Amino acid sequence: MNVLLIGSGAREHALAWKLAQSPMLGRLFAAPGNPGIAQHAELVDVNPADHRGTVDFCLKHSVELIVIGPEAPLVDGLADNLRTMGFCVFGPNRIPAQLEGSKGFTKDLCRRHGIPTARYVRAGDLLAAEAALEDFGLPVVIKADGLAAGKGVIIAETAEEAQAALDTMFDGGFGAAGASVVIEQFLTGEEASFFAITDGAAVVPFGSAQDHKRVGDGDTGPNTGGMGAYSPASILTPELEERVMAEIVRPTVRALAEAGTPYSGVLYAGLMLTPDGPSLIEYNARFGDPECQVLMMRLESDLLELMYATARGELAELATPRFSNDAALTVVVAAKGYPATPQKGGGIDGLDEAAALGATIFHAGTARSKGTLVASGGRVLSVAARGGTVLDARRTAYAAVDAIDFPDGFCRRDIGWREVERLAP
Ligand code: AMP
Ligand code: GLY
Fold first, then answer.
1. pTM of the model
2. 155, 227, 286, best to mutate for ligand 1 pocket (most atoms within 8 Å of CB)
3. Which ligand 1 atom lies nearest to the CA of residue 185?
4. Where are the beta strands (DSSP E) in 186-240?
5. Whether pLDDT at 173 is above 80
6. Which of 74, 166, 338, 412 measures 20 to 30 Å from 289, CA to CA?
7. Among the listed residues 408, 387, 269, 271, the one whose alpha carbon sits nearest the alpha carbon of residue 330
8. Which atom of ligand 2 is nearest to the CA of 290?
9. Whose CA is nearest to atom 5 of ligand 2?
10. Residues 143 and 184 sit within 8 Å (Cβ to Cβ)
């Protein structure tokens, strides 16, 4: 089967790496891809914002399945147009992708269906938002409604910070994403990510992970797309996972199906494990990056078979996805200056030596320039490893990071610290 993979990050490299292991795979195309993805796929010049052009490419190259990695094309309705043309797609249509595209959409759905999430108010203008603030204590959480590349959430500790956040949002500081806001109660607890795959009817759990969003060691500094992750997150015990499935994920999938807009693809639930139980912080309509890398390191089932069955609405006929009992951990190597102003163009060497230590190196922002590999984005590499425990995986991953010659890069040195503390308090 020929497959087109949309995206260019380490998440898509991990997907390409896993898809390439499937005996069902014919040709794998990637648009736009990156030099790491090129080890497994043919990079093609298809612009996913051009739906007609994407359809034409798939017709011409007998593509049967399109796998959409990032959120923007999903929210933009690429899956709808491909499905209309008869293609199988892994990834939700435009309306169910609103679970990620609009925080207000998700909150309203949770309220209607009794899904645990922080108390909230939606506001479409500054006056309404200021009035709503009075219903909340401090700290208070203020979120731009739309897609804001992970930057649209402000936790205000003081009334002045809350006011400044609202002023910025309604002043266009977050573009169209901030034209409407969600104000919500601040929750306390530990965060974890939980994944499920669904074809709109059947829903299967697809593992857990913990990300590290802050740029600096000890969870300090500005938020990023994610500086490292590990899987599984042992804090999500089997009992808690079953609660998340029963109280959060299944009711969401059922609600969207009943509305006539079924969700098909992977559903990523960002959770706060509060003293009262798991509470939904946010949904994403795709795999997380870097969470995907650690899930793929542990996945033992055939990813292509799973994605194809999901896209065809035949998930119930497959065995539940199998994961290794091993732990996996990934360290993101970013370009100095990330997340504000990453320094591009720095040379990267030593990847073969790093891989020889037992790690798997996924590319994100890399490019080839005159035969050498250089940094071309903020997050540059995702260095992943497996091990009997998270400590073993971490040792291998950092040994590999240290073997990489990338003077313009940096990474956090404490990925997995919560799990390490749990293992050896
Ligand atoms: P989101 O983009 O909605 O995942 O929010 C980004 C981050 O903000 C989350 O990972 C949490 O760390 C934090 N956050 C969001 N909502 C809340 C909340 N209601 N209470 C506490 N922290 C939150
Ligand atoms: N790592 C967080 C995300 O992919 O949204």
1. 0.96
2. 155
3. 19
4. 190-198, 203-211, 214-216, 220-223, 228-231
5. no
6. 166
7. 387
8. 1
9. 288
10. yes
